Amino acid sequence: MRRTLSLWLPQLPLDRRIRLGDARTEGAFAIVAEIRNAWRLTHLSDAAREAGLSPGLSLADARAICPSLLTEPADPAREEILLRALWRWADRFSPRVSLDPPDGLLLDIAGCAHLFGGEPEMAATIRERAADLRITARVGIADTKGAAAALARFGSELAAIAAPGNSASALEALPLAALGLDPALVNDLRRTGLQTIGQLYAIKSSELARRFGLGLTLALERSLGRTPDPVTPKSADPVYAARATLPEPIGLQDDLERIILRLADSVCTRLQAAGCGARRYRLTVRPVDGPDEIMTIGFARPGAAPAAVLQQFRTPLDKLRLEFGADFFRLVAESVEPLHPRQTGFDRRDERQDDRTDLISTLGNRLGFDRVRIYAAVDSHLPELEFTTLEAMDRPDAAAWTPSPRARPLRLYNPPEYLRVETPGRPPLRFEWRRRLYETACATGPERLAGEWWREGDARLRDYWRVETREGPRLWLLTWPGAAAPDWFVAGRFP
After folding, report:
1. Distance (Å) of CA 277 to CA 80, 268, 313, 370, 397
2. Are residues 176 and 57 in the same domain?
3. CB 413 within 8 A of CB 490
């Protein structure tokens, strides 16, 4: 008989921060995500729960309850990386392991449980090993994937086990959400008076399908084992790597470059055959008289060109000091992504884009990719919020936003700089800015903008004026209407 173990990791995003040694997790700390047009708490530390907070609470309400709360946005991409690492870790318990995203694993344990002394002992071992990794885990074991997942997530015990052939009775008292149904469907079922899975047993499948759709009956039948739903192990990701072991150590720059080029050619050939490229390459050099030297380079866009790999490794190789040479080299391609074909244009735009990404790659490898940033558009009508900066490594092809139909200065001052009014007016006829006096020659405006009341910050009306001074500078002046003697600021400068 098939037996399935569901390993649920309810605190995976928070556990990732704990594993990184984030000191904030020791106090009131929460992971937040944008849900239903509002930032809400998803995972909480023990201190945050003791302060009266709970998952699903809006961030504004949470900070009203606990002003000292610290938060971190969810990072699904990095959490997926951790989940995949745990997927590889779990193969010590069963050869058949599959992902159950975003926070679970499924193991086919038929013929494996006796190696640990039985199913209860196996469940306890898995939870203990996960705790050693600082990962919170709950376990459910049943005949099917759906039943095991339901017991892991909604069971009354940290390790809930349904006896073989007894999945129906084990699920009977669990809520409808344990079937993994759409929340809207769960609400529809509750409005009819149905609260538990056991209440569905008394209703014919045809009636359930007619009133609530086939999704409900299929989920119920899979959980009860009436429809086959085996664990499908995912094959391991291919590793694009090459190594060289030399009979004699080498240390000259030319020799090192020839070895790296040979390794890069081997790795890139395999990447090209798979239609993929890599954003990072890691080189391990083993000196004969010391520990391994590890060097990593990155690219702004996935690539599989041996010459480009060698070019980026030249700088770290110059800093490598090999007193007695090295005899072992290994090159690994990391962050592998599919290569998408590009349409070549007639205006050399693609060539300019390639030059740009090459420049980003070179600067990032020398200075650090966290220091090389690009501008990206933000959906906002306020000048200071219309853009943000991103790491160029993450968004090398970020498109420029559509220019505003209204005139915008080339340089913005954030925060705006105060000016002293000499001769009042709208805008001021004479004013002092940066210890110099200016006289308004002509002005255009006002351009009135309302603050974004749905965000934290200043939600007042604001007026912008485009002012040309007799002294030369063309300025963008800012004031807040409504005051008898409003203050004025320089918000930007036109070319």
Report:
1. 20, 8, 17, 21, 16
2. yes
3. yes
